[in-house]
Structure formats: C-alpha cells, structure tokens
Amino acid sequence: MPDVKISPAGIVIGLAAILIFGAFGWLTFGPKPAPPPPAVLTQEAKAYLPNLVLTNVRMQAAESYVQSRLVEILGDISNKGNRTLKVVEVICVFKNYAGQEIARERAVVVGARGGSLGPGETKSFRLPFDTIPEAWNQALPSLVIAQIQFE
After folding, report:
1. Which pTM value belongs to this model?
2. d(CA 92, CA 127)
3. Does 146 reside within a domain?
C-alpha cells in the first residue's frame, strides 16, 4: 500500500472549501425567517373607515406578451374626513363559482408611488393581478380596507 502524504496547505484549502460550501448551503437551504405579520387595522383607523369611499370600481383584463392574463381593478378612493392619509391598503378577495374564497391579495391603494390623500381629495387607483387561480368566477372581487396610516 502506497504512503499518501497531504501537505498542510492542501488540508487548509480543503477545510476552507468545506466551510464555504457549508455556509452557502446553510444560507441557501437553511431556515428562513418568518415574514412579518401584515399590519392590522387600528381602532383609530376603524373609526375613520366611514370617511373612505371607493367609487367607480371596475375590472379589465388583458393578455400579456407572455401569454398570461393580467386582471386590473380600477377605481377611485375619496377621503371625506379631515385627516391626511399616508397609506391605504385593501385586501381583494377572489371567489370561485360556488362563492368560496380561492385567493386573497393585499394591495396598496394610497401609498408612496401616488403620494398621500388629503382631506376632501379623490385619487384613482389601479391594482394589477396576474396570479389569480383558474377557478376564479370572473366577478369583481370584494375589496376590504385592511390598513390605514395617517400622516
């Protein structure tokens, strides 16, 4: 049997490779941190809900260039209250033909891109969706205000 000798540099390089591959595996396949819980509607926000009005809510669909369907919910939101709103989020609830919920998507109606919504103002919104399940009944989803942040 031949006598095999490994140089100290070879040992160091081998251990470094094992350490690098181990760290890569841990970061790639290891435990993932839990996503933060979605923001909830505070008591202050719940009291303000009657001051928000969604109007002209409608739907349009188009085929995208990659042969997938893009559904857009369009409408206006009006602030009838006396406070400026920094963020308003809604939950869109999609149902199947039996009336059962099959998808729930959270979307920003008022936010950083469109700016804030002042007292007495009305803004248009556009909510694009491209991952609605095939079982969707093609009806306008229910829109529920999920979060309000004041300035």
Report:
1. 0.68
2. 9
3. yes
Beta sheet of 52-63, edge-to-edge order: 52-63, 69-79, 122-129
Q: Which of 82, 86, 90 is nearest to 41 (CA)?
A: 90
Exposure b/e, 17-26, CB count within 10 A at least 16 = b: eeeeeeeeee
DSSP letter at 130?
A: S
If one counts the domains in the chain, the total is 1
One-character DSSP codes across 49-89? GGGEEEEEEEEEEEE-TTS-EEEEEEEEEEE-SSS-EEEEE
Owning domain of residue 142: 43-150
Q: Which of 12-26, 27-41, 96-110 has the lowest mean pLDDT?
A: 27-41
pLDDT tens, residue by residue, 37-54: 666 788 999 999 999 999
Residue 75: pLDDT band (50, 70, 90) is very high
